[in-house]
Structure formats: structure tokens, C-alpha cells
Amino acid sequence: MKTALWLYLFLFLAFFDLHAQYPILTPFAISLGAGPAFIGWMMGMYSLTHLPGNLLAGVLVDRNGSRRYIVFALTAAGAILLLQAHAQLPWHLLLLRAASGFALAFLSPACMTLLASLSSDPATQGKYMSGHGIIHTLASVVSPAAGAFIVAKAGYSGTFTTLGWLLIFTGVMALFSVPKQVQSMSAAKPALPLHSPAQADREELRVSRRYYLLPFFVSCSQGVLFFELPLSQGSDGMISTGILLSLLSLGALVTLSLFFLNGLAPGIRIAAALLAMALCFFTLAAFRHIPAGVVLFLLGAAKGVLFPAMASLFISLGGPGRMGRTFSLQSIAMSLGAFAGPVAAGQLRDFVSPYFIAFVLLMTAILLLPPRGAGKPAYRPEWNSPAA
């Protein structure tokens, strides 16, 4: 539990740092002379360079543990932010965001694997994952508005410098606080009899790669939101953008705190959350008289239902010895989506509302990913239980 608390602290500081940048990156790029299409590529490039990092992280985390990669990701991303404070041209920002994307690609697989490895009990694992979501959301509630206010007081250079040193300090703390090795359920061997029904189900799920379309579509829709929301608020709307993003996270915090929802089957939660998110994006596109803050709060509430359900699904897809690879593949799918979303929105913004693009993507996800075994949990506790 002590390791989990330390990790939650590092995650809070890291997520605070990262989310504080969301409302200021687009205005900063505009101040350097970038147009909407270039901004879409800039945001997408950050996610595109996640891919080689994710591919490396999946194997390396399973082989060497999480500690060194958490420290590397935090300190390297902090150093890049210090350089970003001195960017003078749009291409400088593009290259630095690409480098930051590669460095931070190691953080999510390493942290998720470490949390899942702290216990072999499925219920405890679920609590750790819910804690991860709550910490992430708490940081994202306050950080967008905080980032906008810091820019208003210190300017872009001062803000990036402050955030960079915060990440470096967090990485140094992780170096001395995260244990080198954790006795992990991922180190254990599967204890199920050969050809048992549970093992057959596990193998079937493991090869069902269509499940990785889920984080792709979700991340793609989020990329559209983070691209379009600052542009829709205008160049002078940093503070309003930060407040709206904080409302998004506040909605997620509300549903993440409803722990009884974890008793429902992941398939049911995923389908309901996708439908709710799709309707929210359709409302943003078609009913602009409805206050955006209300819609974003509801969108965040749907996200708070979706992400713990996805965590349960991908823990069940992983199983012993494959956690790093599974979360790596999930991160790759999310990186591809986060790249495709802003790029598509930047290219098509003059023809169709980007919010409508996100609506179509999420409705497609519902069609392609119907709830599997909606009457029973996708997570099978016996997959990680000792042999009788």
C-alpha cells in the first residue's frame, strides 16, 4: 500500500503538469504563427511518437520492472518542457512535442503495470485501478484552469519552465521512492489446467484484437475535443477553455467515486458510456445553445464510467506475465487515435464540425464492439487465482 500511495503522488504531480498544458498549447502555437492544420499535426505528432516508445515499453517493463522507466519518462519530459519554453517557431514546437511524446510513452504502461502488480487479488487490483482514475481526474480538475491562470501571470515561457522543473522534481522523487522490484502477479505462471474452459476463454480474448479498437476510437474522440475546444473559444479564451476542461474532469470524478458501478459487467458499462459520450458530442455539434459546460460535465461523467471498465477489460486480456505488453498495446491504440483525431479535425474543420466527427467515431465503436457476454463480467477472477 505504501508503494501505491507514493505512486499516486507521482501520478498526481505528473498528470497535473501534463493537463495544465492543454488549454495553452493551441494559443501558444497560434502566437508562433501556426494555423489550424499545423496545430492538428502538432497535437497528432505528440501521439504518433508514442508508438515506438509504447513498443519498447511493453517488452522492457515486463523484463526490467517499472521503476527506471517511470523515472526516465518524468525527467526527460521535464527537460523537454524547459526547452519548449524557448521555442521561437512552429517547427520548434512540433519537434519538441514529438520528443515529449516518445519520452512519456513509457509512463502509462510502467505505472499501470506497477499498480496491477501490487496484488494478485482481482478485487484489490480493481481498487488500485479506480484509485489511478481518481488521481488522474483530481489532477485534471484543477490543472487546466491552473495552467491558464499561470500563463496569464507568468507568460508562456514562465509556465513551461515551471511545469518542466515540476516534472524533473517528480522524477527525482520517484527514483528514491519507487521500489526496484515488486513481487508481482505478472511474475507468476498460469496455474490453470491445460485446456481448461477458463484458459480457453482467456486465449480467445487474448487474440480478439478488435478490443483494441475501443481505446483507439475513444482516444480519437478525445483528440478531436482537445483540438477543437480551444479553437472554438478563440485566442483570448484560455481561461474559459481551462474552466471547461476542469468541468470535464469534475464530471469524471463524480462517476469514478461511485465504486458500486464496478460491480456491473464491463461490457455493459462500456456500451452505456460510449453511447453517452457520442450523444454529448452530437449535442456540441448540433445544439450550440446548450451551455458547453453542462455538456462537458456529462461527457466527463461518461468517461468516468468508461475508463475503469476498460482497465478491467485489459487486465483480463493480459493475464500473468503479459501486463506490460497488454497495456503497451492499449497505449499504442490510444496513441494512434490521439494522432488521427486532431489531424482529421484540422483537415476537415472547414467542411464539418469536428464534434460530429467524434460522434461518428464513437457510434462506430458501439457498432464494431458490441458488449461481449453482457450478462457476465468480462473479468474472470480464476485467471489470476492459485490452483486449488
TrEMBL record:
Its main location: membrane. InterPro entries: MFS (IPR011701), MFS_dom (IPR020846), MFS_Efflux_Transporters (IPR050189), MFS_trans_sf (IPR036259). This is MFS transporter. Gene3D superfamilies: MFS general substrate transporter like domains. GO terms for cellular component: plasma membrane. The keyword Mitochondrion does not apply. It is found in: Cell membrane. Keywords: Cell membrane, Membrane, Transmembrane, Transmembrane helix, Transport. It holds the Pfam family MFS_1. Residues 3-376 form the Major facilitator superfamily (MFS) profile domain. It comes from Paenibacillus graminis. GO terms for molecular function: transmembrane transporter activity. The chain crosses the membrane at residues 69-87, 93-116, 128-152, 158-178, 211-231, 237-261, 268-287, 293-315, 327-345, 351-370. It is a multi-pass membrane protein.
